[in-house]
Amino acid sequence: MMSQLQPLDVCLNKPFKDRVRHFYNEWMAEETHSFTPAGRLKRPVVSLVCQWVADAWYDLPDATVVASFKKCCITNAMGGTEDSFVYEESSDKEPESSSDSD
């Protein structure tokens, strides 16, 4: 029941975290990194991580944010006209294949 009340958990966290992870992986793939005196890789600076978070948020389509609220029945529509979104499958799941593996 809690997931039905929290739009971030329902539709936004996975694409947001995937995007932040993408930025981190790009940073890791760069060849220019700083190291500690012990030879360990230094973490990215806070301002860069904040930029990744901002970019990841702005990369989320507005329609995805709106749909996440509708799926949780959090909407301005009076009369329950958008309540059907609760029972629709989310589009971020993998489609099931109907082909046989014989």
Task: Give structural notes.
The structure is a single chain. With 102 residues, the protein is mostly helical. The protein has one domain. It is 46% helix and 0% strand. It is built from 3 helices and no strands. The chain has helices spanning 7-29, 46-59, 62-71. Helix 1 (7-29) packs across helix 2 and helix 1 (7-29) runs antiparallel to helix 3 (62-71). It is elongated, with a radius of gyration of 20 Å. It starts with 6 loop residues before the first helix and ends in a 31-residue tail after the last helix. Mean pLDDT is 76; it is low at 92-102.
Distance between the termini: 40 Å
From the spread of the alpha carbons, the general shape counts as: elongated
Structural class: mainly alpha
SSE succession: HHH
Task: Count structural domains.
Answer: 1
Protein name: POGO family transposase
Domain DDE-1: 3-69
GO molecular function: nucleic acid binding
Organism: Ornithodoros erraticus (European soft tick)
